[in-house]
Amino acid sequence: MKVRYDENGIHFFDRRTGANLLIDELSVEPSQWAKSPRHVSFALTNSCDLRCGYCYAPKHRAELDFERLKSWITDIDRNGSLGVGFGGGEPTIYKDFVELCKYTSTQTSLSVSFTTHGHRVAASMAEQLSGHVHFIRVSMDGLGATYERLRGRSFEQFLSAISILRTIAPFGINYVLNADTVHELKEAIVYAQNLGAREFLILPEIDKNGGFHPSHLKYLRDFLTDYRGNLPLRINENCTDGMPVADPFKDLDPINAYAFVDARGILKRTSYELGGVDISQGNILYGLEIMRSQLIN
Fold first, then answer.
1. Is 140:147 a contact under the CB 8 Å cutoff?
2. Tens digit of pLDDT for each residue in 205-214?
3. Which residues pair with 39 in a beta bridge?
4. Domains and CATH numbers, the chain
5. Beta strands in the chain (DSSP E)
6. 152-180 pLDDT tens trace
């Protein structure tokens, strides 16, 4: 059980079960507040063996240094983070991926998750990762023929990948919501639940101007309002305005909840943000302080 102190109160987190307990009746002195966000995501590499037309990830070659990654992960663990997520590109392409997960699970108290298309995780890798990963996010944009058209891979292969991934850790589904997939959303949620998914993350597609299609947001808002299913739903934090969402945290610190480091070593508030703070040769805590000062000023 890990304990975090911040502006919201005292937060207890069990990475084995995913259980969270927030005691917000107790106030915490600012001097005791955690210096790092609850969750930090790292794009280990920009490389990916799929070519999805709507993918916003950078296409130039870049990957994070393994030793520096370990240093950053150790620092955020010691300064209050609860979990770390590995993405990309496709994180399983990263040559030290298994070693990174093992290091994080054995040398820190952080929860370990990663986001993957699933097609590269063979049984041998799954065996090595078992016990060192606490949650997996699997990308599934559409079902059957829709998935195959968008992802360029067999849907049957995807289902085979799920059967391997679920031997490692509990999993959830990431679902990009766009003109191709919106009509299958309801069916996809039921399908994901039948596969054994623990949650379903809906990600409205980012357009070329960095925004969301208004009709997709309206559809999502209406859908969430009427949803009565059993599978927990999540949405991208960038599009929560006007959505019927529950949020127990009242963060005044703009990066108390989340931060992202891209494959070049640029620290950002979100993966969609332009700019950021270059920490490729430096300390992540110092980068977080620079980012806070920029946002406040």
1. yes
2. 877 666 678 8
3. 83, 258
4. 34-264 (3.20.20.70)
5. 2-6, 9-14, 19-23, 39-43, 83-87, 111-116, 135-139, 171-177, 200-204, 233-235, 258-261, 266-268, 277-278
6. 999 999 999 999 999 999 999 999 999 99
